[in-house]
Amino acid sequence: MHFIPCSRHVLINKCCKQFGDKEQHQFQSFAEILTAYVHFKAQKNLELMKQSYAYFNPNQEDTIFPKLTHDEETQQASILADTFKRVLLNANYQELTERDIKKALKQSSLVPVNTQVDLNDYQRILLFYRGSNIKQATVKHLFRKKQISFDNYDYVAVLLEIKSQQYFQVKEKNKDKLNFEPGKVYLYLYKNIPHYDLELLFPNVKISMNLRDKLMLIIPALGAAVPMLIKILPALGLLVGAIALVVFGWNLDGKFDVDVKDPKAVYPLLLASFSACVALGGFAVRQYIKYKSKRMEFLKKVTDVLFFKSLDVCQGVLNAVVDSAEEEQSKEMLLVYYLLMQEGKALDIKVLNNKVNNWTKDQFSIDTNVNVASALEQLMNIQAPSDSGEGKLAIVEKLDNDRYQASNIESAKHIIDYTWDNLFQY
Question: Which residue, 22, 32, 127, 330, could crosslink 38 as a Cys pair with Cβ 3.0–4.6 Å?
Answer without folding.
Answer: 330
